Amino acid sequence: MTAAPLILASASPRRKALLEQIGVIPDKIIAADIDEAPLKAELPRDYVLRLAREKALLVAGANPRARVLGADTAVACGRRILPKAEDEHTARECLALLSGRAHRVYTGVALVAPDGAVRTRIVETRVKVRRLDAPAIQDYINSKEWDGKAGGYAIQGLFAKHIAGIIGSHPNVMGLPLYEVANLLAGSADASK
Question: Residue 94 CA to chain centroid, in angstroms?
Fold first, then answer.
C-alpha cells in the first residue's frame, strides 16, 4: 500500500522549496485561510503550534484521504512575537529591535493523517544578529527582502551577512525544520502501509 497523498497547507514558496530540497513533492498545495493574530498573552511556542494545527486541520477537513502538513513560523524577542513586516515602518522597528541581540525563531509543524491523527513538533532556533547601524538598516530596507517576512528579515538573503551566530536548525529560520518534518513524514508513510 502506498502513502496517502500529501497536501502542503501553505502558500509559502519557501516551504515548498524546502520540501523539494529533501525530495518531498507535495501532491497539492492548499493555503489555509485562518486568523493569524496571537491570542492575548499567548507565548510564541504555543502560538506557532496552534496555527500549524489549525492550518492542517482546516485543510484536512476538506481532504479526508490525504496527509496534510501545516506549519507556522514566528520570530520572538523574549515573549514578544514580532509581526510579519508588511511595510517599511514595521520592518525598521523589527530590525532595530533585533540589532545586537539574540532572538528565537519558532516553527510549529502539524501533520494530519487520513485517520485524523495529528502529530506535531515545535522547533526553536536561536539567532544572534550583529549590531546594525542606520546605514545597514537602510540598505536592508531598500532591498525589500523584508516584505512579508516574520521579524522583518529573510536569513537566506542579504540579511545573512548580519547573522553573527545560529544555534539550531537553519531551515527552521526559513520556515520549515527539515529534519523534524522528514521524520514526521516518514512515520506517517510507515503508518499507512
Answer: 17
The pLDDT, as a whole number, for residue 193 is 41
At residue 76 the predicted structure's pLDDT band, cuts being 50, 70 and 90, is very high
What is the torsional sign of CA 168, 94, 46, 13?
negative
Q: Note if 46 is an active site residue.
A: no
Per the CB < 8 A criterion, the answer to whether 110 and 118 are in contact is yes
The pLDDT tens digits for 82-107 are 999 999 999 999 999 999 999 999 99
Which run of H or E residues covers position 38? none
Hey, what amino acid is at 115? Answer: D
Residue 140: in which H helix or E strand, if any?
helix 134-143
Among 71, 101, 67, 25, residue whose Cα is nearest residue 169: 71
Which of the following is catalytic: 33, 35, 46, 72? 72
Judge contact between 165 and 100, C-beta under 8 A. Answer: no
Cell (9 digits) for 12: 509559502
User: Per the structure block, which three cell numbers stand in for 159?
Assistant: 540579511
Confidence of residue 189 (pLDDT cuts 50, 70, 90): low
CA distance 166 to 29: 30
Range 6-191 classified under CATH 3.30.950.10 = no
Helix (H) or strand (E) holding 190: helix 178-191
Q: Give exposure, 95-112, as e/b (b: 16+ Cβ within 10 Å).
A: bebbeeeebbbbbbbbbb
Q: What's the rounded Cα separation, in Å, for the pair 63 and 187?
A: 20
